[in-house]
Structures are given as C-alpha cells and as structure tokens.
Amino acid sequence: MRKSIWITGGILACFIILMLWFYYTAKDGFAEAENEAIEWALELTALIEVDHVEFFAGETNYTVVFGNNSEGEKLVVWVGDEIIHEEKASDGVSKSTIRQQVIERHGSVSFVRTTPGRLGELWVWEVFYKKQESDGMRHYYDYYKFTDGEWVDTYRLNLEE
pTM of the predicted model, to two decimals? Predict the structure, then answer.
C-alpha cells in the first residue's frame, strides 16, 4: 500500500513539473515574440514609446504594438513576419466606438476581446464576443475596418455545449 502511494505521488510530482516546464516555455516564447516586435516597431516606424502589446491570430499572425510618436500622437503598429504596418490611432476608429457598434448591431453581448488585426487585405478591428441566444450561448467574430469602422464580416461559431 505504501509503495503504491509513493509511486502515485512520484508520478503526480513528475506531471506537475512537466506542466510547469511547458507553461514557462510557452510564456517565454510569447515574451520573446513581444520583445522582438517592440524592437522592430521602434526601429522601423515613428513609434518612440510603447504603451502595451496585443496579439492577433488570423491568416497571418501579428503582434500589435500600441504607443506614441515624437509628437505624442498615439500609434498602432502591426508587426508580422513579412510586413509592418503603422497607423495613427486618430486616423482610425476607437475600440470603444467599435464595441458600441457591435452592441447597436447585435444587442446585449459579452465582449471577450477586441484587437486590431487583418482580414484579407484590410486592417481591421476584430471583436470576439459571446451572445446568449434562445438555444444557448454562441461566440462570434465581427470585423470592422480600422479606418472608418465599416462592418466587413461576421463569423458565427457553434453553440457552446
């Protein structure tokens, strides 16, 4: 009986150590990608100060760097493997305006994430949200043009089970 407890405890300890190693390895990968994107954005755009960073996963993944230029204007910089794109935040529609548009189009929703991204050739806001429907909770992705807030597309996912 004691031997089986020690074996079970050993297996559990190995499992925990393995999971911690996996977590920290994955976290380091994100931190490395974030730091690299910040370096590229500071070097190749008008960005001189970084506020925060978000990740966009689409057809092409982008690290989106938010910050300011030398005039104090807010910038948004998309850093991808093959392209870096920069926009003044004032040349686009704000996150709060986009979220308000989603509410106006779809009623009461619960926002999961709103981040700049790219859909096809368009620089967009991607809004990931969930909405209670008569047959259950459903997740959606809405896409709006970054520059003018025009609705582009909606992806409707399966109901939660």
Answer: 0.80
Q: What is the pLDDT of residues 53-99, one digit of tens each?
A: 999 999 999 999 999 999 999 999 999 999 999 999 999 999 999 99
One-letter amino acid of 32 = E
Q: Which amino acid is at 35?
A: N
Residue 40: what are its φ and ψ, rounded to 5°? -60, -45
- Burial of residue 117 (CB within 10 Å: 0-12, 13-18, 19+) is buried
H helix or E strand, kind and range, residue 30: helix 2-44
| Tens of pLDDT, residues 86-122 | 999 999 999 999 999 999 999 999 999 999 999 999 9
Q: Which residues fall within 8 angstroms of residue 71, CB to CB, at 6 or more apart?
A: none
> How many Å apart are CA 18 and CA 30, to the nearest integer?
19
The length of the chain in residues reads: 161
Provide DSSP, 71-137: TS-EEEEEE-SS-EEEEEGGGS--HHHHHHHHHHHHSS-EEEEEEEEEETTEEEEEEEEEEEETTEE
